[in-house]
Structures are given as C-alpha cells and as structure tokens.
Amino acid sequence: MADSVKVALLGCGAVGSEVVRLLHEQADDLTARIGAPVELVGIAVRRAGRDRSDLPVKPDLFTTDALGLVKRDDVDVVIEVVGGIEPARTWLVEALRSGKSVITGNKALLAEDGGSLHDAAAEGGADLYYEASVAGAIPLLRPLRESLHGDRITQVTGIVNGTTNFILSAMDATGAGFSEALEEATALGYAEADPTADVEGFDAAAKAAILASLAFHTRVRAADVYREGITEVSAADVASAKAMGCTIKLLCIAGRTADGGVSVRVHPAMIPRTHPLAGVGEAFNAVFVEAEAAGQLMFYGRGAGGAPTASAVLGDLVAVGRNRLAGVRAASESAYADLAVHPMGEVSTRYHVSLDVADRAGVLAAVAGVFARHDVSIATVNQSGRGDEASLVIVTHSAPDSALAATVAELRTLDFVRAVASVLRVEF
C-alpha cells in the first residue's frame, strides 16, 4: 500500500462539514478506489471558537491560518469550499504553483479568473478539478471535458440554479406572484436571506461561463455572459406561457453562432412543455447538451446542498488521488479554440411581448408597423379585451436581439401603448 494522500480542507460550512463526514464514513472505500488512504491533515476555518464536536475529527486539526495550511510541505491536495474571489484565489494559486492538486467548488472564482488557476496549475504541474462548481452532484463537467472531448458540442442549455427553479415552478403550479413564491422558497430553506445572487442571475451566469469554457474550448468569463434575473417575471407572464403550452425557466444558454463564434446568456424564457427541461421542477437542476455526433444528452439531479456537492468533491478526490499515486496529471485546460464571444445584441432570439393598449381603431396596424420598421417578423398576434382591458400579445420570429430591443423601446414611446406589460424570450 502506498503512502496516504494528505488533504487540506479550506472551509467547514455546509459543504465542508459534509466532506469531513464522507471522508470518515467512506474511508475504506476511498482507500480501495484510490489505492492509498486519505489523511485529512488540516481544516481552515474563519472562526476558531465554534463548537465542531459533532465532526469526526480531532480539534487540533482546525486552524484559522488557511495560507499557512496550504504552504505546508505535507499537503498533497487542497480542497476549497469557502467561495468568493479573495483570499481564495491567493490560496489556490499558491497551492497549484507549488505542485499541490486543487479541488474547488468556487464557481465565482472560476468564472471571474479561472485562467489564473489554470495557468498556475500548468506552472506547478498540478491537477485542477472543479466538478462541484456547477450543478452539485450531477456529473456534468467531466463528461464535457473528457467524455465528449472527441465530439463537437453545438449548444448547452441548462437550469443551473435551484432557487430560481423552485420559485418559477411554484409560480407555475399555484399561480402565485414572484414575491409570494420567493417567500415560500425562503421559508423552506431554498433561498438565502439575501437571494440577490440567485434571483438576479449572477449564480447562473458564473456557471454558464464555466460550462461554455469547457464546451467550446474558449476562456469565457462571467463578464462575457449576458444576464437577466427573474424578479420581473409576473403571474400574468406565467399564465400567458401556460396559454401557449409553455412554462418559464431561468436558462443558461451557450451556443455556437453562424459565424463561428459563441454566445453565452442567462435569462428567463418560455419553453414548450414538451421539452425535457420543462419538466424539471422544484430545486432540481438539468443541463441539455447537443453535440454533432452524440446528439442530444441531458444531465439531471440535485444541483445544490451540502451532501450532493460533497459527493462531487469526493469524486474529484478519487481522480486526483489516483493521478498523484501514478505520477501523472489530468489533461490541462483546453482553450485552443479562443472563439469570439458575441454580445447579446448580435444573438438571434424570439420575443413574447404583452402590451396594454388604447381601445381604438388602427392600433394593431400601428404596432405591426413598428415591428416592420425594425425588420422583425411577427409570428402570432392575440388581441383581447375592450376599454381599459384592451391588450395585445405578440410572439415574434427569430431576429437579432438588438432589433427586438429597439422595437420594444419604440413601442414604449407610443401614446396608444399604455404599458409594455412584459417582455420574455421564447426558446425551442
């Protein structure tokens, strides 16, 4: 039996404590799978005085000096589940440059500056694994960077935030508004006290950047991702979607463009109830991958939570441990394609536009004229109501998003349009 694989753990919150528990409970299985026992040699925490007697580790393993722990000569692998940009970036760059393998679930750091981590890994000849950064326990990133590495991925579309999916699923099931559904999600523990990162799409945008980077062999950062949250989605929008045979989901969509670039976006969208993603409910995640040879693939499961995320961490640990014992490292970052990332305005999309309008002759023709001036073709129009209840619901054919946005902007200026009640994109 080879020497043990010595692990330093940075962070001992919901995910870190589950990592500790699983390392203890599955110690024999991990030893058999890796070929050597795993030894936890230190745990970095923010507060030293907190009671952690429920964890199966000795108290002297805890330290508040994370950088000191990372620099220790007896550490082989650093697992980081703290999150945030700094000081996590400093810790992980230090570890990688010194030849220590890193396992992280830090989606914000990977999306903001994953290039620095990959460069440090190449410099130190170390492994960088991050399955836990997207979609929790769902085995997704490794298939993208290994199983599908011989194929040409054309599009990745996913529901990658459990909080927003729970909220939208509740709105669809009950007819509730956004605020009521958010309140329920918070009460049940699906939403944080400050849900901004989730409901405004920041969390999903970070994951979209990671997925796009792997799928298209191009460094994509969070700043490259177009982002809209779900705070403006109303009960009326959900009802309109139902009337069309659709549901509303917050999607991350990364795809190749006709000119050889890529587009990456996160926004709420109407999707047909017949699509596989439409049936993904509550706080579950799912990612739909389309590739030229493999065709359509879907990955589904629990996308968050301490235990599911820890499961992904331990999966990476087995891979990293085997590599270290064999004296090899995993394939390095694949960013050779270096494709141009197009802004949202250049992406072709479809719109669902709901207008409150004056009840008088010529309104429909005038509205149609606005769409025509911007070269946007109308697919369907539904005119309903009389008097103060008069409304138009328009669904467009695919057109450049910039043209659609300009159309909506002009509609807002017309005296007979009382309000642009909602604007949603339509996918599939």
TrEMBL record:
Binding site for NADPH: 107
EC number, as in UniProt: 1.1.1.3
Residues in the signal sequence: none
Pathway entry: Amino-acid biosynthesis; L-methionine biosynthesis via de novo pathway; L-homoserine from L-aspartate: step 3/3; Amino-acid biosynthesis; L-threonine biosynthesis; L-threonine from L-aspartate: step 3/5
Molecular function GO labels: homoserine dehydrogenase activity; NADP binding
Reaction(s) this enzyme catalyzes, per UniProt: L-homoserine + NAD(+) = L-aspartate 4-semialdehyde + NADH + H(+); L-homoserine + NADP(+) = L-aspartate 4-semialdehyde + NADPH + H(+)
CDD domains for this protein: ACT_HSDH-Hom
Segments crossing the lipid bilayer: none
GO BP: methionine biosynthetic process; threonine biosynthetic process
Domain ACT: 352-428
Matches recorded under PROSITE patterns: ACT, HOMOSER_DHGENASE
Principal EC category: oxidoreductase
Entry keywords, A to Z: Amino-acid biosynthesis, Methionine biosynthesis, NADP, Oxidoreductase, Sodium, Threonine biosynthesis
Cofactor(s) needed by this chain: a metal cation
Binding site for L-homoserine: 192
Short name of one Pfam family: ACT
Entry binding sites for NADP(+): 10-17
Family, similarity comment: Belongs to the homoserine dehydrogenase family.
Matching NCBIfam families: PRK06349.1
Protein name per the record: Homoserine dehydrogenase
